Amino acid sequence: MILSAKFITSAPKFTYELLSSHSQVAFLGRSNVGKSSLINALCKQKQLAKSSSVPGKTQLINFFEVLCKKEEKFSLIFVDLPGFGYAKVSKNLKEIWNKNLDEFLKLQTSIKLFVHLIDCRHFDLDIDTEVDIYLKSFLREDQEILKVFTKIDKLNQSQKAKLKKLYPDSLFVSNSKKIGLEILEKTIIDKALGL
Ligand code: GDP
């Protein structure tokens, strides 16, 4: 379980100091997917992650040290990546995810898990498919992608069943209704530890 978390630093791009002996978990998703709310809920804090995503604003990568417990206490690093996919911005992923971010993701080898957040109401957008293909294009053997559908409170039972059938390995969460948060927390910890 997650005991507590604290902000460490923000960075615009990769530097070797950002690599750590702690396993890292990167959170990514379209702007407004519910990423900040979810990171705050997982870390049991209200203001840790902030919705930063204003188009044109400098996009920073935020790092949090997260104290966890599973038999023993240990730390993970949560990496909060800039939101992507403004409707009015070019669909070309390379233009949205600038060179710095691309370099960061490829060199930040401490990342053991990519948590790809997807709004359950818009589960098959091209941009999310492109992100999935992109991540898989450089994914190492010791890294995994976890698809997490957010705002699941917005779907009825049959819509949820349909989505589960399409993505059996994914997790469903709602921060508003506090659904799926415990299993997400456990899954993140286990996968970050390579269990
Ligand atoms: P971010 O831009 O991805 O960091 O998204 P935020 O965490 O700021 O959330 C974006 C919007 O979605 C806010 O208005 C939240 O209140 C709303 N939101 C976040 N989580 C949920 C959820 O589980 N269910 C619903 N219905 N809305 C949510």
TrEMBL record:
GO biological process assignments: division septum assembly
Cofactor: Mg(2+)
GO CC terms: cytosol
UniProt xrefs under Pfam families: MMR_HSR1 (PF01926)
MF terms in GO: GTP binding; metal ion binding
Membrane-spanning segments: none
UniProt key word Metal-binding: yes
Family, per entry: Belongs to the TRAFAC class TrmE-Era-EngA-EngB-Septin-like GTPase superfamily. EngB GTPase family.
Role noted for this protein: Necessary for normal cell division and for the maintenance of normal septation.
NCBIfam families in the cross-refs: GTPase_YsxC
PANTHER family: ENGB-TYPE G DOMAIN-CONTAINING PROTEIN, MSS1/TRME-RELATED GTP-BINDING PROTEIN
Name by which UniProt lists this protein: Probable GTP-binding protein EngB
Species, as recorded: Campylobacter sp. CCS1377
